[in-house]
Every structure is written in structure tokens, then in C-alpha cells.
Amino acid sequence: MSIEVSQVNKHFGSFQALKNIDLKIQSGELVALLGPSGCGKTTLLRIIAGLETPDTGSILFHGEDVSSREVRERNVGFVFQHYALFRHMSVFDNVAFGLRMKPKSQRPSEKVIADKVHELLNLVQLDWLADRYPEQLSGGQRQRIALARALAVEPKVLLLDEPFGALDAKVRKELRRWLARLHEEVHLTSVFVTHDQEEAMEVADRIVVMNKGVVEQIGSPGEVYENPASDFVYHFLGDSNHLKQGDEHILFRPHEVALARQAENDFRPAEVRDIRPLGAVTRITLKLDSQDEFIEAEVIKDHASLKGLSRGQILYFKPKANTPA
Amino acid sequence: MSSSLSSSAPFSLSKSQGRPLGQRLLILSAWLAFGLLLLLPLYVVLSEALKLGFGTFFSAMLEPDALAAMQLTLIAVGISVPLNLVFGVAAAWCVSKYEFRGKSLLITLIDLPFSVSPVIAGLIYVLMFGAQGWFGPWLLDRDLQIIFAVPGIVLATLFVTVPFVARELIPLMQEQGTQEEEAARLLGASGWQMFWHVTLPNIKWGLIYGVVLCTARAMGEFGAVSVVSGHIRGLTNTLPLHVEILYNEYNHVAAFSVASLLLVMALFILLLKQWSESRINRQRHNSAEE
Questions:
Q1: Domain boundary among A234, A255, A273
Q2: What's the predicted TM-score (pTM) here?
Q3: Per residue of chain B (290 residues), what is the pLDDT tens digit?
Q4: Which of B268, B244, B243 is nearest to B258 (CA)?
Q5: In chain A, how many domains are there?
Q6: Which domain holds residue A312?
Q7: Given an 8 Å threshold on Cβ–Cβ distance, is A101 in contact with B179?
Q8: Contact at CB, B188 and A51, closer than 8 angstroms
Q9: Are residues A313 and A228 part of one domain?
Q10: Candidate from B185, B198, B286 with C-beta closest to A86
Q11: In chain B, which residue's Cα lies nearest the Cα of A158?
Q12: Which of A98, A259, A275, B130 meets the CB 3.0–4.6 Å disulfide criterion with B126?
């Protein structure tokens, strides 16, 4: 089901959290709302869910205005950042909750509910935890149970608030790949909020970059990275170097650098301050005489210029592609 | 709170040999103070009550005026505690789940009965509903009596016990936040279903604890009730007032017999309190591990 956000504004007291937000999400898409904390991304997600009411504007599901519909009638699945599992219920009861709350005429029998719950627990690969309580689960397990609980009512839209925010780095990586695969399986229109650009790039079909309550850019991961619409987007999507060349300044990413041990045409000399092997690439921190700001370069780990390199030596560098700032 | 202190003490009794002198003295004086201030009076009440044997002890308790006082106390508790339960949950809900203007003022006002002397609380009701009070003539016209009657006693008890349930629930509910309720709404629960299946189980032990404290205070309330009661034997005397009257009449054995009845009820409530408190601590402990 498609989601359309049209001309949404939201104030909290005198603070304007969202300014004229327009957004169209196609059916079956996986979209990331990306931005720094306080940019309004969570507020926008909560407005789509119906947990907050916008001051102006409307929310359309599949072309139908749902702005005046109550939370419980919107049929959205929502996963909270801290999962909000019902602490006094077992995993099974948590997942069954949505089905048991249905009006009597639509409520399935306990047998059907049990089948459905086990099916969902199998989907998230945690069927063996059905009798446990939330406090006995790890963060990653809680996350997946929260997802199973949200999917139980067969929502038309899935909304996730910082779904990996509270997990440690390794679990986080595993889970986001798993979520991307799951999305391919169930193909539910999904929106997730994140402040981590790597996460958005890796999982989402499209990224909505937000800052200070406005949408800065909407596009595929490739588009927003290659053609950033503003300085903010450029800086937010990755590390950047700032180089003064005479009167003009240029911006370039750490990997957009050519390095050489000998002086070459257009190459500039700099002192090596730090060498950091980061796996496939190695990061070198360079200091120029002409500016205080360091230059960071990332090259593949077996690059010729790195052989026998140590701190304090002189290295020659040249920005490959650059964006005038 | 004494339970959590003793259970969390890092020493066990078997190690008391190696305890420094200062620590031993402190523990000894704590027990001494406890014995003198709490156990001795308990002993005095019971020994005075049983001075003339079990016969007089039970007849003092089963005498019609004592039974009427007992009945009135139970009525006052039976009305004020459920009302406070409803009010307490509603107030705690408002304060912890919504943002609104004047919230801190409301929290302060909930505490008012704690800071106002109970005698003044009683006087307020006399000034409002007494014959010369604000609503006196209006009530007199309709032949309604509040002061020196059961409604006054219930009102006074209610006023004094208002904070107990709300005070216990507000921090608990603030700590728990609103996300589980939001999750329930998103999963299709109605307001009532959400309250019944999510909110209530989460606050259950805190609520029981608050109700127990509230009941204890409602049973033992003397000051406010004394002002509005009028001390009419067999009609407007609660148990604490009855004890006072018996004592003032130099009927010490009967006074202490009735007092021991209150004492037994208090001890029973103390046990309930201990039990619910341990359940809350367990719940806190579990959620702190998250």
C-alpha cells in the first residue's frame, strides 16, 4: 500500500518539528528517514502511525485520507526503538496480543491464533523462545519479537523507529541484512528511521534525508551519495575533506584521493600523521603546511604508496573528483 | 524499607565475631531503640488488655458500642479506600501519561493532605457543612446531615487518605512511560482493553501497596474524624475514637482490649505491605536488568 504525506507541519510549543513535509512512498518500497537527532524524523514516523496529530496537512494510505482515523484503525505495524514489549506477558502472548484484541466477531479461535503465532515466531527464527519473558531475551531477540508482534495483525504498512539503535555493532549488522531479506520476502511497504547513514545505504530502496524539520533530498542510495542536493547531504552521507587551493575551497571524500610516494604533476606534499588499517582499506591522516585541518585519505590496503610507509614521512596526494564548495 | 536494608546487608550473623566494636554498638542500640519504642508498647497494650483474663478481653470487644465502632470503621474504610483507588489511578494516569498546564500544581495539591494537620482537615469540613457553615442552611433545608454523622466521617477519612495510592503510582507509571500503551493501541486495543491488559498488570503491585497503606491510615485516622464525629456512642464512634472514650472513662482494660483489636488489624496490614513491597522490588529488579 502506498503512503502519501502532504504538506505536514508540526509544532511542539514554539519549536517547529516539521515544515511542509511532502513525501510519496510507493507500495512495497523500503524507505529510510535519515537525519541527525532532532531533525523530526521520528515525529514524522509517529504522525504516519497516528501517534501524533499534525497541525496541518494530511496522510494518505493508498490514496485514501487517514488523517482523522484513530491509531487502532490505521492498521500499521510499529516497532519501537526500545521495542516496548509487554513486560508481564510471555513472548507467545506478546505476539498473540493483536489477534486477541480484535472485536469478538473478527477474533480467530485460540487454535488459529496459536498457529499464526508459531508461524511468525518461525519467520523471525525464535520459535524456541515462546515461553520466555521479554526480560530474559537479548536485545536482538527482543527486536525480532517486536517485529513478529507487529506483523501478527497483518498490517498494510510497517514502521520502524531506529530499529537497530539499541543493539551492539555486530548484532546490528546481522539484523539489518536480515531485515532487508525479510522485506524481500513479505514485501510490505516499510519506513524506518535512522541516524546512521551506513544503515540507510545498506538497507533502503530510497532514502529521505532530513534536517531541522525539512526534507533535504529524496533519492536512491546511489543518487543521494553521488549527487547530493546540498552541503548538508554531502556532509551527512560520508566523511569529507576540505582543501584550500588558493582562493577556492574544494570538498572531496577520503576515497577520492590519489596518493604517490614521489612528487608528480598537480600532486601536493603532506606529512603523514597517522596510518590506520581498517580492513579492506587503510586510512591515512595527512597534514598540510597551508591549513590546520587534516586531510584523510582511504586507499585499498595493498596500495603501492603504503609499502614501508611510516609516520612523519612525506606523501603526495591529489583529489580525484571534487565538488567546489 | 527495613526488609531491603537487612537483606542487602553484606554481613551475615555468623560473621558477627569479626565485626568492629562501633558496628556492634550501633546495631545493639538500633535493637534497643526498637525494643523500647515499639516492642514494649505492644507488650503493654496486650498485657493491660489481658490483665483481667480473656473473658473481660473478649466482652470489651464484643460489647455493642465496640461492635458499632468496628462497623463504622469498616464502613469508612470500605467507602474511602475504593474511592481513593479510583481517584489515585486516575490522577496518576493524568500526571504520568499527559502533558498539560498546571501539572506540577496538581502534583503538589495531591500531597496537601500529608502536610495539613488532620485536625484542620476536620475543621474545614465543619466550616463547610456544619450548621453554621457555608452549605449548612442549604443542607438543613433538605434535612441532610453530614457533620456529626457518617458522611462527615467518610469525607474526613477520604481527605486524609487521598495521597496514598496516587503517590505510590505516579513515580512507577512515570518510570514505565507510555510506549507499551502506544504499542497496545497500534495493535488494535481499545482504551479499556489497553488499561486492563497492559497498564493494570504493570502497576498491580504498586497499586496493592498503595491500597494497603491507604487502608491502614483510614482505619487508624483519629484527628480529622474526631472533629467531625461528635462522639455519639454507638452511632458516630470509630474504633480509635472508642478507645479514647474508654480510656478517658478510666476503663483501661476495655480501652486496651479494643486497642489490641486495632493492633491486630495493623499487623495484618503490615504483612500485606511487606508482601506487596517484595513483589515491587522484584519487578524493579527485573526491569533494572534490562
A1: A234
A2: 0.77
A3: 344 444 444 444 545 567 888 899 999 999 999 989 888 888 888 888 888 878 888 888 788 888 888 888 889 999 999 999 999 999 998 888 888 888 888 888 888 888 888 888 888 888 888 777 788 788 788 877 777 888 888 888 888 898 999 988 998 998 888 899 999 999 999 889 999 999 999 898 888 888 888 888 888 888 888 888 877 777 778 888 888 888 888 887 888 888 888 888 888 888 888 887 787 777 666 655 54
A4: B243
A5: 2
A6: 241-319
A7: no
A8: no
A9: no
A10: B198
A11: B186
A12: B130
